[in-house]
Write a structure and sequence with these properties.
It is a single chain. The protein is mostly helical. It has a single domain, classed as Four Helix Bundle (Hemerythrin (Met), subunit A) (Up-down Bundle), CATH 1.20.120.330. The chain has 7 helices and 2 strands, in the order H-E-H-H-E-H-H-H-H. It has helices spanning about 5-10, 25-45, 50-75, 80-90, 100-105, 115-125, 135-155, and strands at about 20, 75. The chain has a two-stranded antiparallel sheet with strand order 1-2. Helix 3 packs across helix 6 (about 115-125) and helix 3 runs parallel beside helix 7.
Length: about 160
Amino acid sequence: MPNSKDRLTWCLESGKRMRRIKPNDKLSKEHIEKAKHNLKAANYNVQGHFDDWAVSQSYYAMYHALLAILFKKGFESKNHECTISTVEFLIENKEINLSMNDIYFIRTTEQMTTKDAKSLREEFQYGTKTDVNKVLLAELLQKSKAIVERIEFILAEM
């Protein structure tokens, strides 16, 4: 697998995937608010027994938090892999103080099992299953909330 710098270069080769922009605090704040909104929606859907949608909303909560980082750093992404890879690049270059374990949880990598958030989201968004393992769902909700909170704290420090 190419390193994060090579993936970032690939992402920036097409404006359809990602482009550099002037850092945008307003959009960064809007994306972190969207992330928190998605967490609330996930909890609401768990209460209503729409667990499959809670999986998607948990993933999108974390994804919007990543987008908040990118807008703060001067990137606009329209590609999930590019969003995740760019945050990974920023972590590796010590531009943000987020754990790679958080990225590993969000993204599908060769080292991960089907327990990562992106795989779960794809399984329940595109598949026909609606019943989610309750332990797995609780872990997903807890980890997604923790990641969004960490990113919100990081953004406040930037």
